[in-house]
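Each field is set out as follows.
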Amino acid sequence: MEAVDALNEIAFWLERELAPTFKVQAFRKAAGIIAGLDAEELAARAADGRLKRTKGIGDRTFQVIREALDGGVPDYLAGLRSRGAEPLVPGGHELHAALRGDLHSHSDWSDGGSPIQDMADAARLLGREYLALTDHSPNLKIANGLSTERLAEQLDIVAELNAGGGFRLLTGIEADILEDGTVDQTPEMLDRLDIVVASVHSKLRSDKRTMTRRMLGAIADPHTNVLGHCTGRLVQGGRGTRPASEFDAGAVFAACAENNVAVEINSRPERQDPPGDLIKLALDAGCLFSIDSDAHAPGQLDFLQYGAERAERHGVPAERIVTTWPLDRLLEWAASRR
């Protein structure tokens, strides 16, 4: 196999396994270094020692390149493939198989780690029919949120990537829900997007009344399609833990049902958001759901397995999950309030 492909696939499996970022980046960086070399030049540099002396090529990545040049699947990749053949969770497989797309993902345009093309390619390889690119909005400066100008530029890139047909990369944004309940992007830009995920990212410890009013404002905005990770909690992982925000869940989910806004079942293992009792409350309120990866790297797109397992465990029927819908139906729903 091609050495670049081997390095990138290793990075994919490591991302899926929640490996440390530095470890993933080592393989993606090495892939970038050799990407411009043809097979003959790469083999020559590997043979005479220049490749091993190249900054950014370590012992492990050099070994992977050598084994790929020799015509086989590198041992390190073979081991990762073997582990990756096992599902991430014991349940939810039937619902996972029914998922057609994913409405929440990030690229290196905001706080993701990979180019848009790489995210789209990974989604396609995982069998997705569509993926919404939802980089952050301008208020979230810590995540390099997109200004109106940068978002407009991104829309042109997405249009170019979709020119070939088949798999569809949806235009979108994860828009910050501001303190006054407005959605963080101009109405004119929001009108141009396929999908708007609205999420709270700041002042998560506001009092219950304030947080409820804030969320209800965003849900009432006709551009909002999905209420993202509604409690904001963190239950594990490198960022530590964070308690769930306090809000009137009955009122919020009633508003979602009334306004045809889907409640996100966020598949990131450190979020597991909403918790099970709120999934049940949203289900009883008549809400739609969107099982999303919230991926910040290609391998994380496979996190949908976690969300499908949680949705199935809590009795969410497939027909109430918008990401099981065909693209035409999904787009009709997303545009229905605008």
